[in-house]
Give the backbone structure.
Amino acid sequence: MWAMAWRNLWRSPARSWLTLGVVALAVFLSLVFFAFSAALKNGVFELLTRETGHLVVQPAGWRTKSVGELRMEQVAALQQKLLAAYPEAEVSVRLETTALLAANRRSRTVLLQGLAVAPSRAEVLERYLSEGRLPVAAEQVALGRGLARALRLEVGDRVRASVQGSGLYSFEVVGLLDYPDPAVGGRLALLPLAWFQQILAPGAATRVDLHFPWLHRLDQAAQLEVARERLQQAVGQALVVETWQQVSSGVSEYLDILDPYLLVFMGLFFILAGMLLVNTIYLGLVERVREFGLIMALGASRAQVMGLVLLESLGLTIAGSMVGLVLGLALVAWWSQGLHLPAGYAEMYAEFGLPVVMYASIEPGQVLFTLLFSLATALLSALWPAWVAGRLQPIEAMRAAP
Amino acid sequence: MEVAKRQEVSVGYALQLFSRLAWRNLWRHRSRTWLLGLVTAYATLAMVCFWSFLDGVFESLAQSYAAVMAAPVRLAHPAWFEDPDPENALSGQELAQIAASLGDGYRLVPRLEFPALARSGEVSQGIMARGVDPALEPLVSGLPQKVVEGGWLAGPGQVVLGVGLARMLDTGLGGELKLYTMVGQEVSSRGFRVVGLVDSGLAPYNEALLLISLQEARALLQTTGATQVEVAAGRGREAAVARAIKPLLPLGVEVRPVEDLMGIMKTDMAYHRLVYQLMGWLIALLVTFAVTSTVWVSVLERTREFGLLAALGVAPRSLAGLVVLEAMFATALGALLGLVAAYGLIAYLATHNVLGPLLGLSGEYFSQYGLTQEIYTAVKPAYALYALGVVGLAGLLSMLLPARRVAQLEPVRSMRGG
């Protein structure tokens, strides 16, 4: 029977190749679909961690205190320790406290933030700058647009600040920042870190963020956890190192909202892929009902005919799945190093400040699902014509018009 | 002349003959026709549903945002949008002007929002009070349907509170409270009785929600105006209504559809839409493959039959035409069926909230924006164009190869099953 099945496959090579190709295509596109879904999620991940950093170092117990109450001293030494462990890490340092800003007979409670970003991440901040420039020297400040509006300030104006635990200052507004979140833009005032440290707390910071240039995908969580543990040991008990998810759990929930959409699209997609398989295999066999009748007339049993069909289809499906799997995984591996969006989309994405390079990934479960799905669908669609043929009398089957 | 005419007749006759033959073939090979039709029908359906779902989700989000937090379309002074203070309100005269210039085509719902201090017993709380017309409010707001205890505003001296605010003020149904607000340098105040509690679905919002009648809000602020005029608009129609209103408005009044009232959510939605569009391309690709390969297979398996026809003297060209005709009939039939089924489905899902509970969109992300679990699909004629465009392209592609193959057929070899 093996020999016969093998021979049958070569008897009509066009049909066999087509079936194989369609199975390969279905598997390949399904893998691409999964990889693409993951790339979208990884894009959101990159977006979410752009400002928070991948790992955050803060004083232990920061959750129970108000902003700026707990500080880390000698941040330069801390930075050295972090970089000793991960020289490639991009480190940003923040010193925050609340203050009262007053201008034009109005006043607002604001978050004063002294910020020094890693040079490679400066671009993220510059994207928010809608007017003027970023503060670099003493007494310069950049305000969130909402805050500037509330205090009726424009670039070039001066604003008075009463800084908790320090004193009264007068700042020059040098830039306006358009944060995507109006809640941030309504209360944030940005200062150069060095100068802010001088007037508030020399050498101190409230928060240190780390970005790892190699971290692009959510499935690298294990690597991130390793880095977290290593840095936690390096910095000691007084400080706490947390991942972006631990720092703000709400942010990671944001990722979950993608799932319902992806589920609907997956449903639409896999039904279509299934139909593609059913069609190709079923149509390829239904034509041969007559032939099966002939084989049975020559003495083959129904079970033997079904076995023959099963063997043929199984061979084609497995071969096709393997081809699709190899091609699909190769593509995923390539995309996991970064997929550049087509020009038109890249422009639109850049307009929203979205990452234009996407990083794909795939889970073993998804690969398994794809293979089982194609195998099960292919076998079911192969069995049906064989069963029909087996049920008919040989003479009827030989007469059958598909 | 004579010859040309005869040829014309025979071409017409052949076309008629082949159409009949193609049509008959469709019915002779029922299972094949059904499968081909089914694939095309589902492919069409998938495309229509994809775009309808995508639009529908965002329209549903905007609608529920409008119903709870804002309004479908809002008219106000540009200064008020910048700084929502009653000093930037529309005057009574401006309200009359707006009503006159928009005519009867639009349902206008004025609101008067002002900062106030609510005081109940020893507890007081600063809030943004909202004066609404109790009869008109349901046109633009979902809050009247979200009363969880007591009832909606019905008479003078009544106030409806968010459940969180009632808890913070340590009061409930039947409780008394007093509202204080500044009018110029003077404090203006008025007493109210709690008649209803509202749960917007959004905890922080519930803690700042206080509704009284427009009439009493005006009395408190000593004005005849309103801070904003809301305009009713159906789901997905907000931007169109805003565009239609814009040229009619008196000078110094600005119109904003709900999308422009949503702040950061607008960017979020635009981002997601962009992201999922890429997914749509992937589905379109699969649709193309599915339709094309189905036609290919159905031609390949009939090689023997074509060989027979060729042996009977049918010219390869005509045979190719026959194949194309058959495929055209089947895909067109499938596409038509798919369209009918798809529009039936999305029309149903546009009025029945099946998707919301199904997808469990009540997740934290949505509730933090106070959004409902109601997700409807959108129904637009454009989806049919997208679907037919892709299916049509696939149909064209699928006819090229088989027709060529048939045209190069060798009768004897193909009858043997080659």
User: Anything to note?
Assistant: The two ends of chain A are 25 Å apart (CA to CA). The mean pLDDT of chain A is 83. Chain A touches chain B through 56 residues (CB under 8 Å).
